[in-house]
Amino acid sequence: MISAQYLESDLFFCFSNLMAELKDGFLRDLDNEESGIQGKCKAIEQIIRVVEPEIYARLMSEKIETQYYALRWVMLLLC
Q: H/E/C letters for each residue in 10-30?
C-alpha cells in the first residue's frame, strides 16, 4: 500500500534521480558529446531506424531533423 504521507518526498526523490540522469543532455558544453543532446538525438534516431524503418524513411525523406521531434517526446515523457 502506498502511503500518502511520503508521496511528495518520494516524487521529489524520483524526479531528482531522473534529472541527474538527464542533466548532461541539457549542458551546452556537452551538446556535441555522446552524453549531450546531439548524442541522445542520434541514439533516438538509430532506435527509430531499427524499430520503425518506415517512419525513419519518411522522416529522412521529409528532412525532419531528429531534435525537432525527439526533444518534444522527452518533454512529454517528463510531463
A: HHHHHHHHHHHHHHHHHCHHH
Measuring CA to CA, which residue among 44, 46, 35 is closest to residue 73? 44
Q: Report the sign of the C-alpha dihedral through residues 9, 28, 60, 51, in that order.
A: negative
54 occurs within a structural domain:
yes
- Report how many domains make up the chain: 1
pLDDT in tens, 47-75: 999 999 999 999 999 999 888 888 787 77
Tell me the whole-structure pTM to 2 decimals. Answer: 0.54
Q: Is the pLDDT of residue 46 over 90?
A: yes
d(CA 16, CA 75): 16
Identify the domain containing residue 53 by its residue range: 23-78
